[in-house]
Records
---
Amino acid sequence: MTIKELRRNAHNKLIESGKTDTPELDANLIIMHVLSISREEMLLRDTAVSDAAAIEVNANINRRIKGKPVQYIIGKTEFMSLEFEVDKNVLIPRQDTETLVEAVISAYQGSAAPNILDIGAGSGCIGISLARYIPGSTVTELDISQKALDVAKRNAERNKVARQLSFVCRDIMQVKPDEFSGRFDCIVSNPPYIPTDDIPNLQTEVADHEPLGALDGGRDGLDFYRVITEKTAPKPGGIMALEVGINQADAVADMMYIRGYGNIRIIPDLSGIDRVVIGNR
């Protein structure tokens, strides 16, 4: 079997399954991963593929059909033009979250390098991207899961910002009110925001494979925003920037206003959905 035949078979199998909206992309990513080749090599070469490699590709295609996200199958994804390792211990970074990162980068253009707290670090995609794109910045990655922080540490090394990052394994719901207040120029978070009753209705590949703790935001999806705005605060004049779910922006903006934030802005993502609430202390 050649690479071209392998691509065609994998692509067709995913189309016939009806389990993915991106069958060609998923097939290509799996093949590039198994064969350790670039997209250009995959498209331009049509050499023979070993039986072992073909069997591995087919096994991964079957995993995708059963609902496992392709990012977990290949163990990595792209975010903010950087590559991140991902596994079952961390949420897969979404393009929507780039809106949050871009808002913080924009806020610090031409300013002194900030000291940033990233609450609910997961893969580290937010904090690591900020470290890469805001020269001189330092980031504290906070997460309840040591396994998630281990992934974030590897991603910091992968993206050459390890010296700018520190890692703290703590449950934000259990911290003291003054523990993380007044220490940072910027507090940023993409916390769990899915209402508990909505979890069973999520896509199978999300509900069955991504970590529940990174999704469940409590009865109304706002539990973590209440805690973050009540228990943490940046230095005077500093920034808090939070990613929010659909129809949550106004409620989160109100929480920030009550806590003394000004210049509060709501920023939509590329789909026009209100995605980020950002304000100054």
---
Amino acid sequence: MQRSKNLAMMFLLGAVLVGGALGFTADRVWTRDARCDDPRASKELLYDRLELNTAQRAAFDSILDDRHRQFDSLFKPIRPQMDSIRARSRAQMRALLKTSEQRERFEAIIQPRPNEKRETQK
């Protein structure tokens, strides 16, 4: 009797976990806004959703620019180490890829987005 209860609980827990994962994935896929790939468009989308006026938008821009500058100065000393770790891990991943199709897909995935700066360009 106890074994069947445990088995039922395991199935129930599994169903809840799978349902949660599927729900989360579906939410991300269906609510994705194509404009969010562009940082500027994403910022404008935020401003539009908050219904900010011109003065509020300017204030938000100033705050975000200041935050960006602070993050840049914070990461500047360790950026070469981060780039080295990234390059090494990507080389290890490339070594695992068996087909040219896999390698092409991988390279397409790791390419920066059109409006994205590479870390090493800073």
